[in-house]
């Protein structure tokens, strides 16, 4: 069973997306499904080609590109409503591109640091198409059952005749997974993963804000009690440690990511080995693609589970506001290939911040992004700048504070926002210094975040000792 949720912002009402896997209930439906899927990338490519031609011409306008004549060719196969959905999705891709382009050229907005590219194509004839399919929100039906759930939708009359459909007969897929979010249906998207031979169904729903929060809170043990005393917390995000959290009362939680990065690197090494064995005219293979997907799923699962675990941890302590350090210049190129792999491939800094806003915000905790610059190069105890940071180890040479660098960073962020506070109880990065172990440090075991000793992990260092470390080095 596979299900997940992501943000989709195409209307005033917030959306969440359930993701399932599916299979056709018969060979006839499977063949018809692939004919239906194969036509849509070609339509996307032709619409996108005309818009790109207009965009790159001297006097053209993307929005003036004409494409409705293509409907005459494709509507008999996929249906006119699906043709319109393809055009609408392509328009959304162009609007997103222009928005990113504006942010890239806006010097006051550091969110986009690389020049974005215009919308691309869904494959080609020689290399194969990326099989996507769209269904308008009122043209599909889910039938949920404990034993067998199904999805039904229609196709164009050419396919109906080709596969001898009876009157009002529709393609029927068996769905695996249960909806995590309930609301009004939005446009359905089907994506076929060829190298995994798997059909994924993305099912967005629009949810009223109050109902969205209730649905999210139902999966947590604790809830925010606004009638009792609430407190704030700060989160320092990083690559060595996914999250380091400090609350006003001095509670701490560190989710260290080194074991997961080791797994990520092992996938990368296997991928590199297989790529070196490819013929000269080949770039990838089904096996390599499967390894890429497995690597991403493993990374994303541990990250998302850490954020959910942290949200439960914060609710238990009745935290109503979280300040999250947003350090956009951590993606600068570093001299160490190991650090670059962490920051550019493994970490997914922006995705992590988005997941925090999504999960923590949905349970009623306010999420405020603040600058993390210099948060780990100043002493949170005395404010001195004569500090040394080496991996997880932090030392102030003015007041002799020894601590955990990311905990010190979160402590600095919190004091910057709420004022001075008591020293965190589990500040130390090393064992044997009296720091509480239960609930202070967490380690991912590929299934759960479990309590762990942090001492051995903190000695796996990626960078040399420095004073006033550059903010481009992740925590």
Q: Could you write a compact summary of the structure shown?
A:
The protein is an alpha+beta fold and 475 residues long. 36% of the residues lie in helices and 22% in strands.
Structure description:
The protein is of the alpha+beta class and 475 residues long. It folds into two domains: 7-211, no CATH class; 220-467, YqgF/RNase H-like domain (Nucleotidyltransferase, domain 5), CATH 3.30.420.140. It is built from eleven helices and 22 strands. The protein has helices at 27-56, 71-78, 80-105, 157-162, 209-217, 258-276, 286-316, 337-346, 349-362, 405-418, 455-458, and strands at 7-8, 15-24, 123-124, 128-129, 132-135, 140-143, 149-153, 171-176, 184-185, 188-193, 198-206, 231-237, 241-247, 252-256, 319-326, 366-371, 387-390, 393-396, 402-404, 441-444, 449-451, 466-467. The strands form four sheets. Strands 1, 2, 5, 6, 7, 8, 9, 10 and 11 form a nine-stranded antiparallel β-sheet that branches. The protein has a seven-stranded mixed β-sheet with strand order 16-15-12-13-14-20-21. β3 (123-124) and β4 (128-129) form a beta hairpin. α1 (27-56) crosses α3. The longest helix is centred in the middle third of the chain and has 31 residues, at 286-316. The protein is elongated and about 80 Å long. The two termini are 34 Å apart.
